[in-house]
Structures are given as C-alpha cells and as structure tokens.
Specification:
Elements: E1 3-7, H1 29-41, E2 46-49, H2 59-66, E3 74-80, H3 86-99, E4 104-109, H4 120-138, E5 143-146, E6 151-154, H5 158-162, E7 169-172, H6 176-185, E8 188-191, H7 196-212, E9 218-227, H8 231-241, H9 247-256, H10 263-274, E10 280-282, E11 285-286, E12 299-302, H11 304-316, E13 321-325, H12 329-339
Parallel strand pairs: 1-2, 1-13, 2-3, 3-4, 4-7, 7-8, 8-9, 9-12, 9-13
Antiparallel strand pairs: 5-6, 10-11, 11-12
Helix pairs in contact: 1-12, 3-4, 4-6, 6-7
Length: 345
C-alpha cells in the first residue's frame, strides 16, 4: 500500500515568496496545527513533523499536543538522536505513542547536537547504536549494550512493558556512513529528489546492503509539489515563488541548517547546477526551491496529470512512501488533495 504524507512546517519554512518571512506563516502552534488538521481532513496518511534547533518550534512538544486533536493521520516525528539519553527517549516515545493511540512513527535524524561538531562516521555510528537500544526498550525488552557512544544495561520503562511496540523508523542520508546506518537500523529509507535512474541505482545498492544484515527496506521520496490546472500556470507559480529572492538571502537560509554540509545537500546542489536556465532538471523536476532551502530542494511541477504521472513513475520504480510539501503549505495541501490524490487511488 502506498502512503502519501504532507509536511508540517515546524521550522520556519513556510512562505508565499521564498526568502520573504511572513508573520502569518511563521511556525507556531496555531499555524502548524492548522496544517496538520488540513492534511488529515484532505486524506493524507501521515504528516512529517520536522525538527530544528534555532528554527521554529519543538517537534516533540508539538506532537504531544496535536496527537489529541487528530484521530486518523499518522505523526512522523523527527527525533534528533544524541540530544536525549536513550532510556529517557524511549520513555518519551512510549508516552507519545500512548497519547497518539499507536499513530506515532519516527524519523531518525543524525545531525550534530547544537554546539558540537562530530565526524559523519561517528554521528551515524551513534545513531545506529541509539536505534538498537531504543528498539529493545520500546519492545519492552531489557537492553544490554556496550557501544562506542551508547551504553545501556537496564530494564525498559513500565509504559513500554505494558504497551510494547517495535517503532517504524524512517531515515535518510547519502554518505557511506549514512547508508550503512540505514541498512542496519531503518525500516523506510528516505530519498530526496533525483532522477529516476539515479534513485533506482541507490535503491539497488541499499537492498544489497540491507540483505547483508539480514534485513529488507522500504523506500520513501521527499519532495515539494507545485500543481495547477495547467502546466503553464504551475510554471508561473514556480517563478512567482522565487520572484523576491536574492542570492545572498538564499545562501543565508541554506547555511542555517545543521545538515548544510551533508552529502545529501551536496547532491541537491549538484542537481541544481546541472539544471537548465529555468531551473528544470527534467521537464517536471524543478530545482528552484533549493535556492532558498537546505535539504530537499526540488519540486514536481505541472498540471494534475503530469504531477500524478511523475509520482506514479517513482512509485513504479519501488517507492511506497511519499512525503510532499508546497508553498504556502495550507494552500498547496488543498491543491494536491484536490488535483493529485484522486488520480493516485
């Protein structure tokens, strides 16, 4: 079954015009609550609750509040591993799972803890160790583990014993260390936009890695969408989105992210540089969003049939989870739900 998720803009990344902050779109409980409720109303299966440090609002606190205001949509909570000791994180997640009635899923993040700098290899090793211990405790099992960064010899918290579950873990990263961490630890390997051929190569390689650990993976695609009734209108909307951005502002926005030097961000920059003069990597893959955003910087742009067709192409290549977003997030959520989701049933 294919899952279609929306994006809860918790990190001050909602705009009408990229790079031009709007107080009404700034991350807040009220605004982000409206996005999640709209996504549930519009039939999305899941919503990503991203996490930053200097930007936006706290994802975990937000998740605990929005869980009681929603009934069906899953909550994909970004968890920055390393910021909490693992036993405390396990108790926190188990509590959130109870509040959400089993709808919580985890997006594991390996960014540096604010104020520290760690090598890529060490960060992903810490993540692998943390997920290993976290899974044991959340399953209601004792953890006996001695790693380089995580050591745990303890029984699980009472709430995990009474409500054991094996968390579904989403994870992304392109570096060698990130791929190995994902192969060992994740359930859904998230990819940022790329050509279908390159994406297929990555999935093939990840299948081989996971098989080496006796595991299998599912695959996810995280991108933006700009859909309008006609292709010309969609392209005009893309141009309008960048119409007030200057290069200096875009560079400053990208550099604020703790993952701004990652292999994934480097690949998005490479794709942006290889695009045509209008920013298109392919006819319907537009790299312009990446001029004002670190991370996933490509949008699918087109009319309803074209956007749905591109998503079906990606789905047919082996992806079963899509995390979509658009600007502003409330308005584009309505457009994607009206024009695209019915064509994907």
């Amino acid at each position: 079954m294919t899952e279609y998720a929306w994006f809860g803009a918790l990190c001050d990344d909602d705009y009408e015009f990229l790079g031009v902050p709007d107080p009404e779109l700034r991350s807040s409980w009220a605004h982000c609550r409206d996005i999640v409720l709209r996504a549930e109303q519009n039939g999305f299966d899941n919503v990503l609750l991203p996490s930053g440090y200097s930007l936006g609002i706290d994802a975990t606190a937000f998740a605990s509040a929005i869980a009681v205001e929603t009934t069906r949509i899953k909550l994909l909570l970004a968890v920055r591993l390393g910021e909490l000791v693992v036993p405390q994180l396990a108790r926190q997640i188990a509590t959130l799972q109870q509040i959400a009635g089993g709808r919580l899923v985890i997006n594991a993040i390996s960014s540096d803890v604010p104020g520290e700098m760690m090598s890529s290899e060490d960060r992903y090793q810490r993540t692998t160790e943390a997920i290993t211990v976290l899974r044991s405790l959340l399953r209601g099992e004792r953890a006996d583990f001695d790693g380089k960064f995580v050591t745990a010899h303890l029984d699980p918290p009472r709430i995990a014993v009474e409500q054991p579950h094996d968390p579904v873990v989403y994870f992304g990263g392109l570096s060698e260390a990130a791929r190995d961490c994902a192969a060992q630890s994740s359930d859904v390997y998230l990819m940022w936009p790329d050509t279908t051929a390159q994406m297929t190569d990555v999935m093939r390689e990840m299948n081989q890695r996971a098989a080496g650990y006796g595991r299998t993976l599912r695959y996810g695609w995280r991108s933006h969408v700009i859909v309008r009734e006609t292709e010309s209108e969609a392209r005009a909307a893309a141009e309008a989105l960048l119409s007030r951005l200057d290069a200096q502002t875009g560079s400053a926005i990208r550099s604020k992210s703790l993952d701004s030097a990652s292999a994934g961000v480097a690949r998005q920059s490479e794709l942006r540089e290889s695009a045509d003069a209008d920013g298109y990597l392919e006819r319907h893959l537009w790299t312009g969003v990446g001029r004002a955003r670190s991370g996933a910087g490509i949008a699918i742009v087109g009319d309803p049939d074209q956007v749905a067709g591109k998503l079906r192409e990606i789905r047919d290549a082996g992806v079963d989870t899509f995390i979509l977003s658009g600007y502003p997030h409330l308005a584009e959520c309505d457009l994607v739900a009206r024009y695209v989701l019915p064509k994907l049933c």
